[in-house]
Design goal:
Blueprint: H1 2-9, E1 20-26, E2 29-35, H2 41-45, H3 50-64, E3 70-75
Parallel strand pairs: 2-3
Antiparallel strand pairs: 1-2
């Protein structure tokens, strides 16, 4: 999932070298914490959270094959 999130996010931002994804197992689900450069935060979240929602939808669809729930948190 880490590589999938990086592949989606890096083309969206101005500072792709600052994209970090940390993963952790929590309560039977995989938690992915995404952090980006502060200037890129708006690009990752999008208007009314639409980009963030789309990222979460794609990741959840990809995780359905593995039958494990994934949560994507965008850290500030």
């Amino acid at each position: 999932m880490k590589r999938l999130i990086e592949t989606i996010v890096k083309p969206l931002v101005d500072h792709p070298e600052r994209v970090r994804v940390e993963t952790e197992e929590q309560d039977g689900r995989l938690v992915c914490r995404l952090s980006v450069h502060p200037d890129d935060m708006g690009k990752v979240i999008g208007k009314q959270g639409r980009v963030a929602g789309a990222i979460r939808t794609i990741v959840n669809s990809a995780s359905a094959a593995g039958r494990k729930r994934v949560r994507v948190d965008i850290m500030d």
